[in-house]
Design goal:
Elements: H1 36-46, H2 61-73, H3 77-125, H4 130-137, H5 141-151, H6 157-165
Helix pairs in contact: 3-5
Length: about 170
């Protein structure tokens, strides 16, 4: 009788399939593998000879994970430390890329807001000089939103300049 270790429940017959294999008798070549069972048996038999996952085995992501575990099991302490260091370095790089993308998106949104605000200002007061335009382009997102709300209360360009001076 088979039982699950932690919860001590019986396995239902349909949930468990046992396959007994004498690995030396398994003679199929890589190109002859047909079923999932064939692929796993081939993997078990040839693991020591595999540096990378052959194409027919890539269809089973668990086999690649198993090969990575098997390879790590054969590492020396120094190799394991190097592996872990590289994994941390890769994770850091992924984090930097994600952060840069988010920063780029935020910057793009801020530029878009500044363009809309400039359109509104130019519509209301006519074309403004480059210094005012640059000052508005350099505003933070929350200040741009405040400017849009305040813009409808401005009666002249002087009101806008006064608002900018009070930041």
């Amino acid at each position: 009788m088979f039982k699950e270790q932690k919860k001590n429940v019986d396995y239902i017959e349909d949930d468990l399939k046992l396959i007994f294999v004498e690995l030396p008798k398994f003679q199929k070549k890589l190109e002859e593998l047909e079923s999932l069972i064939d692929k796993w048996i081939f993997f078990l038999k040839e693991t020591a000879k595999l540096d990378i996952i052959p194409e027919p085995l890539k269809e089973v992501p668990e086999i690649e994970r198993a090969l990575n575990i098997a390879n790590r099991a054969n590492y020396s302490r120094k190799e394991l430390e190097e592996f872990e260091r590289r994994a941390v370095m890769l994770q850091d790089e992924k984090g930097k890329i994600t952060y840069a993308k988010e920063e780029g998106r935020a910057e793009g949104r801020a530029e878009g807001k500044a363009e809309v605000v400039m359109l509104l200002i130019n519509q209301r007061f006519g074309e403004v000089d480059k210094d005012i335009s640059n000052q508005i382009s350099n505003l933070k997102s929350e200040n741009l939103e405040s400017l849009v709300k305040a813009l409808f209360d401005f009666n002249s360009l002087a009101d806008l300049l006064s608002w900018l001076d009070n930041l």
